[in-house]
Structures are given as C-alpha cells and as structure tokens.
Design a protein that fits this description.
Number of strands: 5
Strand order of the largest sheet: 1-2-3-4-5
Structural class: alpha+beta
Mean pLDDT: 86
Strand content: 15-25%
Distance between the termini: 50 Å
Helix content: 25-40%
CATH class: Alpha Beta
Low-confidence stretches: 1-5
Shape: globular
CATH superfamily: Gcn5-related N-acetyltransferase (GNAT)
CATH architecture: 3-Layer(aba) Sandwich
C-alpha cells in the first residue's frame, strides 16, 4: 500500500466543529445530505461513553489541519451470545486521499482503542456490492465471521400499516 502521502497525519476524537466536513464528505460519498443524522451520531459516539464509543477524525498536520476522513465505532457485547467486540459503523476518506493510508490509520487508531478496552475481535457489516469497502476491509485482514445477517421486507409480511 502507498502510505507516503500522509506521513504527517493526526487522528483525534471528533469535535462539533468537524461536523461540517463530515456531512460534506458523506454527501459526496452517498449523494445525500444528512446533517441531523451526523449530529445524532456525534452526540452518541463523540460525546457519550468515550471509553466504549469512538468517533475519530483524520486530518493533515501540514499547518492546514485539513479534514481527510472519519471512522465511527463502539464496543458492543452480548447480542445473541457474542462476547464483547469492536464494531465499525462508518469509515469515510476524502476521495483524493484514498490509497494514501488514511483509512488504515483511522482503522488502526480505532483498533487500538478497542484493544485498550479489552476487546479482541473487530466486526462490521457492509453491502455485498460495495467493492470499495470490501476491498479495504479485506486488505486490513478482515474476513467473513461466524454470524449471518438476516433481514425481512416489512412491507410484505403483513406488519406494515
């Protein structure tokens, strides 16, 4: 991996002032602006239970403090018998910085926080057709785990209004 572009990188906890950059990046990635969603994510993962929840920012150090990406995750436990593990809920990197090591540094920082909390497993859920994220997580050593995601269309099961 080419990790030369971001030798002067800072990973830190997100602050409210970072939300504009996060919202703008998410809009580029998803095609939809979701400011209320990101404010809620920040309040839950950036401000509450900081030893279990993590909202981290990557920025360039070169005097600019330029926003490069973000990652969100938390320690979860005991759903369906699962021992405590770290979950990655979101990772996004500015397109021009992809393949420069930003995502790897963000994931490493999150994993370090999880290890500090005593966690030994990392999990995430991604869409099968999201080849970019699939490639990234596979390049970091992640693979299929012991759990199977199930879902149901609520509009067709008689439960919808």
């Amino acid at each position: 991996m080419d990790d030369t572009r971001q030798t002067n990188l800072t990973i830190r906890r997100a602050e409210r002032a970072d939300l504009a950059g996060i919202i703008a990046l998410d809009e580029v990635v998803t095609g939809e602006s979701k400011p209320e969603y990101w404010l809620d994510i920040f309040e839950r993962f950036g401000e509450r239970r900081p030893t279990e929840r993590h909202f981290l920012i990557a920025e360039a150090d070169k005097g600019s403090k330029r926003f490069l990406g973000a990652i969100v995750g938390e320690v979860r436990a005991w759903e369906f018998g699962s021992p405590p593990c770290g979950w990655v809920f979101s990772i996004q990197v500015v397109q021009s910085e992809r393949q420069g090591g930003v995502g790897t540094h963000l994931l490493e920082a999150l994993c370090a926080a999880f290890r500090e909390a005593g966690v030994t497993k990392l999990r995430t859920v991604i869409s099968r057709d999201n080849l970019l994220l699939m490639s990234f997580f596979r390049s970091q050593g992640m693979m299929g785990g012991p759990y199977l995601q199930l879902e149901m269309d609520l509009a067709s099961d008689g439960l919808a209004p």
